[in-house]
Amino acid sequence: MVFKVFACSVLFFVILAMLGAGSVAFRESKKIRGFNIVQISASDARAYYTENGFYTIQYVPKEQIAPLFGEARNEFGHKIALIRDDLSEDVKKFVTYHELYHLQDIKHKSRFSRELNANLAGAPYSFFGFVKTIFMTVTDFSRMKYYMQGAGE
After folding, report:
1. What is the pTM of this model?
2. How far is Cα 141 from Cα 135, in angstroms, rounded to an integer?
3. Residues in Cβ contact with 46 at an 8 Å cutoff, skipping those fewer than 6 apart
4. 86-124 residue pLDDT tens
5. What total number of domains does the chain contain?
6. Is there a domain that residue 95 lies in?
7. What is the domain extent for residue 133?
C-alpha cells in the first residue's frame, strides 16, 4: 500500500514537473513534428522514414531490451529506434516519438536534460501513452532500479 501511494505521488509530481518545465523544451520538440507515423503496430517489423534523415523503427521482443521500453541507437550512421512489441498502442506511440527525439538530439548533454526533452517531445503525440509510461515505470521495481543506478550514462 505504501509503495502504491509513493508511486502515485511520484507520478503526480513528474506530470506536474513535465508540464511546468515545458515551454522551452516543448518548442524544441518541434524537431520531430516532421515525422509521419502512419501505423505503429506490433505486426510491423520495420518502418522507414526519410524526412529529417533516415530512421529505422524496429519492434522487438521484450526480452531483447527489457527493462527499457525503447532504445535509440546510432550504428555506423544508421539511426535505429528499438521499441518493445508487447506495449499497448498508445505507449508504443509515445515511446516511438521519444526515441526518435533521442536520435536527433545533439544539443542536450546531461541525461536528465535528454530524458526530459524526449518526454516532452513525445507527450503531444500520445499524452495517455506518456502518463501510462510514467506509471509503468514508477510501479516496476526493475525499471526504477535501472534508472536509479544511472545505467546508460
Report:
1. 0.71
2. 12
3. 56, 57, 58, 59
4. 999 999 999 998 998 888 887 878 888 888 889 988 898
5. 1
6. yes
7. 2-148
